[in-house]
Design goal:
By secondary structure, the protein is mainly β. The chain contains 1 helix and 8 strands.
Length: about 110
């Protein structure tokens, strides 16, 4: 199986990527397309198996966890200026928050 990725256009002025099919969770920031930064969010499948995350280290990996099921909540807040997207990862067993990242247009696109 290949990686399944979709672009989630958000009206705060940029694009973030939501991907899956790796069966471990992660958040990535790709800066190889300067001056743009691409953020990719990869929670695990909820009703399929999961596996260990790779042991490699990379500065583009902001968060990774394996061997557990994770879900993510995407919250777009357009009532503030600048608008912001907050993504928070939770453990499906305990509902404990594992990672949280808030982005504004300045994080995604050049000024």
């Amino acid at each position: 199986t290949g990686v399944q990725t979709c672009a989630l256009p958000i009206w705060i002025g940029g694009v973030v990527l939501v991907s899956g099919d790796q069966h471990w969770s992660a958040v990535f920031r790709n800066t190889s397309f300067a001056p743009y930064s691409f953020y990719e969010f990869m929670p695990t499948p909820l009703w399929a198996f999961f596996r260990a995350a790779p042991s490699t280290t990379d500065p583009q990996i902001l968060f990774k966890v394996g061997n557990r099921k994770i879900y993510a909540v995407f919250d777009v807040d357009g009532t503030v200026s600048p608008a912001r997207l907050t993504v928070e990862y939770f453990d499906t067993t305990t509902n404990a928050s594992l990672y949280r990242l808030t982005l504004t247009p300045n994080d995604i696109q050049p000024s």
